[in-house]
Each structure stands twice: as structure tokens, then as C-alpha cells.
Amino acid sequence: APVVATTAVIVTLITCVSIAKAKDIYLGGLAWPYFSDTGRDAPGYSIFCAGLTIVAIALVLTWLANYEFQRQLIDKESQGSAENLYEPNIRKYCEIVRVLGVLSVFGLPILAFFSTTSYPDTHKYAAYWFFVLEAVALVVNTIASFKLARLSDGNPYYSSEPGESAVKAFDPWNVSKSSKRRTLYIQVVCTTLFWIAFLLYIPIGLALIDEFQRLTIKDCLNLDLGEKYCTDTMKLNDNETVLWNYDNAHGLNQMRSAGQLMCILTLVGYSLSFLSHNSESLEDDTVEPTV
């Protein structure tokens, strides 16, 4: 499922951008456009809708497979530790991740089918829904991965008996061949990069841009986009088209579109970290003790 999601999103992105550039589709004058603008007009719209629907299905399966792996790992590590109070804590994190991950993907087909020009509010809030829930899911899942690595390598055991050691020493950054640690490292890096891009794309970017403006019919005609296209197909009212004009805040919109791209790429990288979830991960890893 992670490979399918990764392949689908990359193919969809490259195809939509390539078609938009080849057909000289209006993209707001941005060097790197918003992903949604590339899937606004036919034939990119059909590819955009189909691609994001496939991505949504694959992401649901990815988050569910991730939860199943975590559940099996917790069950394995908790064997013989009936009084381990650390296990329920990890399970709560895993449950939260599963719910957030599955709920977030419903935003993808919605934002795909409800285009940014025809249904701007629906499209916008569906995108926010997806990225915000994914942002939280990445953080919570990375915390869960840290706790799982700690449970596996350090075997923290909270005992009700006095005098017993509460938790064994655990250094998550100690070099090890543990697949769980490799997963953790990848997830920490991708989550950090995602949050930097996410902040630039949504909260900071939106706070700095006063108002999004429509492209006027006059400007549309001056750009030689076609009389029928400007005065009929994309007409909003007597003066404006449904197309967006980013010239009033070109630099900020370029920053947001770059942030959006980085969010997509880091999500791809994060999902690939799940490829280390295999049967070998459920076996005992050989970890040399830290002196």
C-alpha cells in the first residue's frame, strides 16, 4: 500500500504538471503551481480525480497496515509482562493514529472532485482537513514509533513492586541495526520537514496573504487564453473569471505552493518508512548493550 500511494501521487503530480505546462494552461503565473490548479482543466481534471482517489484508498490501507503492525509488535513485547503499564499507553497512541490517518484521507477525493475554481470553499476546507489531520497523525505516530522502539530495545517495565527498576536506560539515537530504529529516524526527519512546510503553506502563508483575487476577464483576454474560455467557460460575472490571480502576493503564493509540494514529498517519504514494517521487525533484533 505505501508503494501504491507513493507511485500514484508522484505519477499524478508529474502528469498533471506536464499536461498543464504542455497545453499552456493558466497557472496563476507561478513558477511552481499549486497542485490543484494543474488538475483544474481537462484532461488534467480526470487524472487529478482518479489519481487522488487511488492515493486515498492506498493511504487508508497504509494506516490500517501500520496499526496492525504496531498491535502485533505490542502483543509480542508485552508477553510475560502482565503488570506492564506502558503497553496501554502505547496502544492509545496507535489507536489515535489509526483514526486520524483514516479520517484525513476523505479530504483527498473531495478536494479532487470539487475543483478550486468551481467550488473554492469546499475544495479549500477539504485540503485543510487532509493536511491538518495528517500533520497531527505524523507527530502522534512518530511518538508511537519512539515508544515502540523503547519498549522493544529498552523493555520499559513499570512495576508495582517497590525497589524494582522502573525503566531500563534507552537511547533512541544509539547506532543499531534495529529496523524499528531505522523507521523512527526516517519518521523524525520527515515529520520535521513536513511541519516546516506545513506551517509555511497553511497557517503562516494564509496569515500573510490578505485576500485571494480572481483573474479579470480583461486580464484573461490579454493573456490570450481564448475568448470563449475567458468570457464563457471560466466566466464568474461580468468582470471576473473563476480563475485565481496571484499577482497581488506573488512571492507569498510561490512560498505556499512550494510548501504544498514539500508537504506532499515528505508525506511520500514518511509513508515509505512503513516499508520496514515486515516480519523481521517482529523478530528479536540484536542490539548491543550500551556501555
UniProtKB/TrEMBL annotation:
<dbReference type="GO" id="GO:0012505">
    <property type="term" value="C:endomembrane system"/>
</dbReference>
<keyword id="KW-0812">Transmembrane</keyword>
<protein>
    <recommendedName>
        <fullName>CWH43-like N-terminal domain-containing protein</fullName>
    </recommendedName>
</protein>
<feature type="transmembrane region" description="Helical">
    <location>
        <begin position="126"/>
        <end position="146"/>
    </location>
</feature>
<feature type="domain" description="CWH43-like N-terminal">
    <location>
        <begin position="2"/>
        <end position="201"/>
    </location>
</feature>
<feature type="transmembrane region" description="Helical">
    <location>
        <begin position="42"/>
        <end position="64"/>
    </location>
</feature>
<keyword id="KW-1133">Transmembrane helix</keyword>
<keyword id="KW-0472">Membrane</keyword>
<feature type="transmembrane region" description="Helical">
    <location>
        <begin position="184"/>
        <end position="209"/>
    </location>
</feature>
<dbReference type="InterPro" id="IPR019402">
    <property type="entry name" value="CWH43_N"/>
</dbReference>
<dbReference type="InterPro" id="IPR050911">
    <property type="entry name" value="DRAM/TMEM150_Autophagy_Mod"/>
</dbReference>
<feature type="transmembrane region" description="Helical">
    <location>
        <begin position="96"/>
        <end position="114"/>
    </location>
</feature>
<dbReference type="Pfam" id="PF10277">
    <property type="entry name" value="Frag1"/>
</dbReference>
